[in-house]
Amino acid sequence: MLNTALGRFRSISAIEGLSFLLLVFIAMPIKYIGGDPYPVKIFGMIHGVLFIIFMISLFEVKRKESWDIGFMFQLFVLSLIPFGAFFIEKRVKPESVSKSAQ
């Protein structure tokens, strides 16, 4: 799966999406309900680094797979939504990419 740009993108998208969910649904409630800001600092940094890697991977796969800018923008917007990684995965499965990206 990690041998192709698309495979790497799908992997990092899933990991980045999971980090976003951990940040929003675990670390943030601990900060605002429990009064401990430390988990947000840790998960926020991890998520930030993963998001940068996600964007680099998105540009790489756009170039290698010849995706149009509109499809790339849709994937970017989905990455900003909690649980959006599940929709990204559905959109970028190898059998559905040829239909969606063109």
Task: Describe the protein's architecture and organization.
The structure is a single chain. The protein has 5 helices and no strands. By secondary structure, the protein is mainly α. The protein has one domain. Helix 1 packs antiparallel against helix 2, helix 1 packs antiparallel against helix 4 and helix 2 packs antiparallel against helix 3. It is elongated, with a radius of gyration of 15 Å. The relative contact order is 0.17.
Topology:
Elements: H1 5-32, H2 38-65, H3 69-79, H4 84-92, H5 94-100
Number of helices in the DSSP assignment: 5
Compute the average pLDDT: 90
Q: Specify Rg, calculated over alpha carbons.
A: 15 Å
Structural class: mainly alpha
Number of strands: 0
State the low-pLDDT regions, or none.
none
Q: Measure the end-to-end span.
A: 23 Å
- Percent helix among the residues? over 70%
Let me know the largest β-sheet: none
Shape: elongated
Strand content: under 5%
User: How many domains make up the 3D coordinates?
Assistant: 1
Order of helices and strands: HHHHH
